[in-house]
Amino acid sequence: QPPSPPAGAPRPPRNDLPRDVPDFTGREAQLAAVLSAVDSSRVLAIDGMAGVGKTCLAVHAAHQLAADYPDAQLYLDLHGFTEGREPLGPDPALRALLAALDVPSEKIPQEGGIEPLAACWRSELAHRRAVVVLDNAADADQVRPLLPGAGPSVALITSRNRLLGLDEVPPVSLDVLTPQESAELLARASGDPGGPDSRLARDPESAAEVLRLCGHLPLALRLAAARLRHRPGWTVGILVERMAEGATEFDTAFAMSVRQLDRAQRRFFRLLGLLPGSTFDEHVAAALADIPLRSARAMLEDLLDAHLVQQPAAGRYGLHDLVHQHARRAATEQDSPAELEQALGRVLDYYVHAAAAGDAAMSSLSPSRAVSAGRPPAELPQFTDKRAALFWFVTEYTNLMAVFEAAVAAGADVHVCELPRFMRAFFARRCGTTHLNVLFERSLVAAQRLGDPLQLAEAHSDLGFARYNAGRMAEAGAAYEAAAPLVSQIGDARSEAELTMRRGYLKWDEGNVEEPLELFRLAGKLYADAGCPMGTAHATAYEAWAMLQLGHREEAARLAREALDIPHTDPAWPPTLTARITLGVAIAHEEPDEAAEHLEQALALAREDGHKHNEAWCLNCLGVALRQMGRYEEALASHRQAFALLDELFEEHWKIHFLNGYAETCRLAGLPEEALRLHRQALELAPKLGYRYAEALAHEGIAAVLDETDPPGAAEHRAAGQAILQELKPGA
């Protein structure tokens, strides 16, 4: 028991500060910001979500300030988010603070409301150097009367809400700890001695799982650390098992943050827990809750101010993992299964319709087929051009994959069929072919369950095209064979035209000559019958390309110019690109300047479009044309760039389209060994993929190199190439 001060001696300064934690970790930048703000404005607010360490930082800063503010160090919990009690009103708060300063009761106003009390408080602080921590404020109105006025005293406020009403008070917003800081805090708070034999070091995977389950929140980490510290017999694995069992102390904390919201906001917050992806925008939030976009935007701002929602980037929102778990659990407990099912259905509808709108902005054959899945949302993102659509797909990619999985789990078969279909243009630009094959495999299963001939026909056709782009030629042919009778059954000219075009690509790459030409011509007629002139242009451009490969340069150039004459708002749409490439190569001998102009423009458009496969194609064809102009060094550089792109895309099978042309350039540029290597690579790859024509060209190319370098074997390769070409002739 400390001795009592002598009668009449002044009492020592009041210090109500809680104990400063001995294991305060991280927050160097935030602490510096707090101390700097105190110097300049004397009052600041620390805001952040539940458990992020606001109080800990405020108390730690107050202890550091104590020596400079010796007259009093006060702490008052305003109970803005305390389970089971109302927030502390300004009247009792002011009386408690004045009492802490030992202000005689006769000096404290008893009537007149809040303002006389607040004036008395400001007057008492004016001649003192005091630091005041106002913890756990509910809002600006609660804390405004408690702020110091003139004089040197300072106040540190903490709140889960951004105190927007205190314009003159600078904020310091706290986020979760970094992984390194989290690991350090867990070790220090648990009393872990460190070293290779410590509990955390012996089980690093479980230790990492503790950090994940705690969401890098300081309070959660301290609670987990306390369990370890007081249970020396526990392993870290046992702690993980206990933590994963269900609701935690944080559910209570988050529930108090949610309680301040009105009924509509609480429902909105709960439903956000159903979103299957990571970050989200206001459009999907509006669709989820079935409310206007303006209302969703306002509610998101309110939840942002309450630190129940985070904003990692402009226009993007997210929930901390623990908050997301709480919202989802609350939705399960408080909303009916029917309402939750309907909300998830609205999310699935939104993403299919938004993807369709994005695909229409990126697709060459617009307008896209109408969506049949679900109900269109009231408001969709506005895609001003294909760049905006591509940016949306890139941003939403992980969400789209999560939504696809959610649709599979929910048995939403129409959504499962249509979502990948509306992502084809995006996949062509960004994601290669492997993943799209997996998606279309699952779409086919869904279409088979539906039994709808149109969905089933398109699922087979789409899977075939994915197989074709992956170099799986036999499987592509089988899928097209399965689609053909279904397309005939439904009598849809557009579907038949698309399938015909795809069969033409496949037949050409397999080495057929006359049949793909007929298929491209038939596809053009079918597109015309379907009222799709852009499709007709697409077919004409590919007919021109096929004619070029067969050596009919004049006819190829004529058809290419015909395709270019069809107007289109997008200069990089595929028929234009195909026609420019074809024309550039076709006239390289006669009109080298015009040819180079067409090819350079095609390359620039492909790059601007962000389509890496098309960029590689343009580079390779530019190499072929430059070779025909005798510009060998430039040609080689162009080929090399094309192959570097394919290596970047991990698309080995695509090289079959380019190997023989690159090899021929090497031969004419005086690089016979490199030419042989490339032709032999084509000879090895072509049979695996079913590219018989490329196989024949490889044999012919090897024979040409051997003729010039005199090693034996030229005759055998030439005979093998001729035999394959003979097989490929019609009627063979």
TrEMBL record:
SMART domains: TPR
Matching SUPFAM superfamilies: P-loop containing nucleoside triphosphate hydrolases, TPR-like
Record InterPro entries: P-loop_NTPase, TPR-like_helical_dom_sf, TPR_rpt, WH-like_DNA-bd_sf
Pfam family, one: TPR_12
Superkingdom as given in the UniProt entry: Bacteria
Classification via PANTHER family: HTH-TYPE TRANSCRIPTIONAL REGULATOR RV0890C-RELATED (PTHR47691:SF3), REGULATOR-RELATED (PTHR47691)
UniProt name for this protein: Tetratricopeptide repeat protein
